[in-house]
UniProtKB/TrEMBL annotation, chain B:
InterPro entries: SAM-dependent_MTases_sf, Trm8_euk, tRNA_(Gua-N-7)_MeTrfase_Trmb. GO terms for molecular function: tRNA (guanine(46)-N7)-methyltransferase activity; tRNA binding. PANTHER family: 3-DEOXY-D-MANNO-OCTULOSONIC-ACID TRANSFERASE/TRNA GUANINE-N 7 - -METHYLTRANSFERASE (PTHR23417), TRNA (GUANINE-N(7)-)-METHYLTRANSFERASE (PTHR23417:SF16). The active site is at 158. The lineage of its organism: Eukaryota, Viridiplantae, Streptophyta, Embryophyta, Tracheophyta. Keywords: Methyltransferase, Nucleus, RNA-binding, S-adenosyl-L-methionine, Transferase, tRNA processing, tRNA-binding. NCBIfam families: tRNA (guanosine(46)-N7)-methyltransferase TrmB (TIGR00091). GO terms for cellular component: nucleus; tRNA methyltransferase complex. Coiled coil: none annotated. The keyword Nucleus applies. It catalyses: guanosine(46) in tRNA + S-adenosyl-L-methionine = N(7)-methylguanosine(46) in tRNA + S-adenosyl-L-homocysteine. This is tRNA (guanine-N(7)-)-methyltransferase. It comes from the Eukaryota.
Length: 458, 261
């Protein structure tokens, strides 16, 4: 572990970048980011999309770390380690703007009106830039992103606008969630903090807003490395409920079924989860992604080390958040990101990583779709949600060929397992603090001037 | 540093002795960017008032429902150093709870010992001040609720002269968002420095921030706390000895204006 720590600083290339997925809000298209590649599939035209860019290269030159659709699907943004934030029009898939950041980017978001793009850099500063409506790709000389707000010296893992556009929520590696009022003139900065949502005891990895019917306001869900998903009233900063997804014993179902039956029916899932503890990388129940239907009726969480998707139910008036079901996908399938099709009621689950090493670039991505969410929600008989077969997926074989490459035909289990491990290591490096032993810390301070003369004191 | 030697030895009561600074020597700088090895409260509700201000908790121990009426920390000295300001402020506001925040391990230990010694030799006094070792640039919202503080102090902060280190300065437009958050409307932020460039910087940051407004001259002159800024701390006394100039920036936390822009 010591050597890993030391070389980890020099060989950033050995780090794996987890695969990302984003679904167009109206399900017109789907995007997959794997390493520096951005693969987009258009459902309506039933074909792969070619990305174009007049001013710059349409490709990112380093790992993409954040993607999302915005402004009701009119725009798409991608950003990452190449310090570029690229904004695309989703009708033409033409890059209308490329914003340069000083540091690597860890999170992005577009305001709902499509006027602003915000991105967080690795130092914890969130930047904002104004997007012009009819921008034809002409770069304005005097346009430069300005700071909006900052989490001092912390890596921001998630950046989301509240559904009413009044607030912007930012989560960081130091267990904090900050809710800031998004002002009418945001280029001057967002200085008024509404609240901090404090309660997590480890890094916060993901955020999502829900707006349940019969509620005047929206609410916030967050997932963290402390193996909990929490429900917040972000306007008051109050923690409404905490759902522990780490403890097996806590898997009490909300619909009355006993844990015994539950465990039996998904025995493979849990056993697969436990098997991970034998590997070098510790089994952790860190929540890596969270996604929910806008009305909050369905919440899905991806948990590191679990080979499937955890589904939660959220009852806001009763202030309850509980585990509803665990859907086991298959051996060695560790989801890195989730994407939700709201109207088609499909959950897209992707696992993958891009590993750049001295040998070369190795990438692998696997895509699965959970369908019949509505049947699950209405408690119909049967084991819902269902994992769709490849041919039944929207986009079908074409989509899989583009996203997964030809690998999906021959399932290389060893490769899958290797990818799963790489992904876990990547997530760990990204989010967990490096802990140095006392000797290591002293060793790292050896060049400090006051240390050199230590013997002469007293 | 030898002023503490004059304290009369009172038998074997160790706690009455003020700590000797020479045993708590530390570097002037501590890296605010390096991460913590000290415990942080998860939220303001987890701040352990009973260990910091035992005297204040004793009086309402019998009535658990009185929890909400317990006084909360109202003054915070960011980078309190050896605790000079806290010690001077304590008798001026005996019912106000104050806390010092210090990043350096040895120095915060010194302040702890100093407060304990003062409490022992002055029964009933100095019960309203305490110190905590923490990185206030990262964890201030963990200690204080929204609008909790009525006064916040930044006395002689590290100037971080190099341009590339300006981001380590404790007063910045970004961090002022958090300071404004923990302060009540009408609360006062006090800053002082002997480095002119830093003084200009802090003033500029505060002027540019929409939630702070400069206090009037008359108010400045009338505030008894202002007089302590330059003289209460060891750093301030050193500046005075060397005949240095001091630069103040004292501002009030105001309510946000209506967003018309």
């Amino acid at each position: 572990m010591e050597e890993e720590v030391h070389t980890g600083e020099i060989n950033r290339e050995a780090e794996a970048a987890p695969a990302l997925i984003a679904v167009h809000p109206l399900e017109r298209s789907i995007a997959l980011a794997l390493g520096y590649e951005l693969r987009v599939f258009d459902f309506e035209m039933d074909c792969a999309v070619t990305l174009t860019d007049e001013a710059y290269s349409p490709c990112h030159s380093d790992a993409i770390r954040a993607i999302c659709f915005g402004a009701n699907g009119r725009l798409f943004v991608s950003a990452g380690d190449d310090k570029l934030v690229k904004i695309w029009r989703t009708d033409t898939w033409h890059c209308i703007r490329t914003v340069c950041s000083d540091k690597r980017v860890s999170a992005v978001a577009i305001s709902h009106d499509g006027l602003f793009v915000t991105f967080a850099d690795k130092f914890g500063v969130v930047w904002i830039e104004r997007l012009e409506e009819d921008d034809q790709g002409q770069a304005s000389v005097d346009k430069k992103a300005v700071p909006l707000l900052g989490h001092y010296c912390s890596i921001i893992t998630s950046l989301k606008f509240s559904p009413d556009g009044k607030f912007i929520a930012t989560a960081d590696r130091d267990f904090k969630i900050r809710i800031t009022i998004f002002p009418k003139g945001p280029l001057k900065g967002a200085h008024e903090i509404q609240n901090f949502c404090l309660g997590h005891t480890d890094f916060v990895s993901c955020l999502t807003f829900i707006c349940p019917p019969d509620c005047h306001q929206s609410f916030l869900l967050s997932g963290s490395g402390d193996a909990t998903v929490r429900l917040w009233d972000h306007v008051s900063g109050q923690l409404l409920d905490t759902c522990d997804v780490g403890e097996k014993e806590n898997l009490l179902l909300g619909d009355g079924r006993t844990p015994e039956v539950y465990l039996q029916s998904t025995r493979n899932g849990w056993q697969a989860g436990l098997l991970d503890s034998k590997e070098k990388v510790e089994y952790s129940a860190a929540v890596t992604d969270i996604n929910a239907l806008p009305d909050g009726s369905f919440v899905a969480a991806a948990i590191q080390g679990l080979h499937g998707v955890m589904i939660l139910k959220c009852d806001v008036p009763a202030r309850r958040l509980f585990i509803a079901k665990f859907v086991f996908v298959e051996e060695s399938f560790v989801p890195t990101r989730l994407g939700l099709s709201s109207s088609a009621k499909l959950l897209w689950v992707v696992m993958g990583a891009s590993n750049v090493s001295k040998v070369g670039v190795s990438k692998m991505a696997q895509l699965r779709v959970l369908s019949d969410l509505d049947k699950f929600l209405s408690n119909e008989h049967g084991d819902y949600p269902v994992i769709l077969k490849d041919k039944d997926m929207p986009g079908g074989e074409k989509l899989l060929l583009q996203f997964q490459g030809s690998d999906h035909v021959t399932k290389q289990d060893a490769a899958l397992a290797a990818t799963a491990t790489a992904v876990k290591v990547a997530m760990q490096n990204l989010l967990t603090k490096k802990q140095y032993s006392l000797e290591k810390r002293d060793f790292r301070k050896r060049d400090r001037n006051d240390r050199k003369f230590k013997k002469q004191q007293f | 540093m030898s002023k503490n030697d004059g304290k009369a030895t009172q038998g074997k009561r160790q706690s009455a002795h003020l700590p000797r600074k020479r045993f708590y020597r530390a570097r002037a700088h501590s890296n605010p960017l390096s991460d913590s090895h000290f415990p942080i409260p998860i939220s303001p509700a987890d701040v352990d008032y009973s260990s910091h201000y035992p005297h204040f908790l004793h009086s309402s121990k019998n009535d658990p429902d009185e929890d909400d009426l317990l006084p909360k920390i109202s003054f915070a000295d960011i980078g309190c150093g050896f605790g000079g300001l806290l010690v001077k402020l304590s008798p001026l506001f005996p019912d106000t709870l104050m806390i010092g925040m210090e990043l350096r391990d040895k120095v915060s230990e010194y302040v702890k010992e100093r407060i304990l010694a003062l409490r022992a030799s002055n029964p009933g006094q100095y019960e309203n001040i305490s110190v905590v070792r923490t990185n206030s640039m990262k964890y201030l919202p963990n200690y204080f609720c929204k609008g909790q503080l009525s006064k916040i102090f930044f006395l002689f902060p590290d100037p971080h002269f190099k341009e590339k280190n300006h981001r380590r300065r404790v007063i910045s437009l970004q961090l002022l968002d958090e300071y404004a958050y923990v302060m009540e409307v009408g609360g006062i932020i006090y800053t002082i420095t002997d480095v002119e460039e830093l003084g200009d910087w802090m003033k500029l940051c505060l002027d540019s921030h929409p939630l702070f407004s400069a206090i009037l001259e008359e108010e400045f002159e009338a505030d008894p706390v202002v007089k302590l800024l330059a003289s209460a701390t060891e750093e301030g006394q050193k500046v005075a000895r060397n005949g240095g100039q001091t630069f103040y920036a004292v501002f009030r936390r105001i309510a946000p204006e209506d967003p018309i822009v």
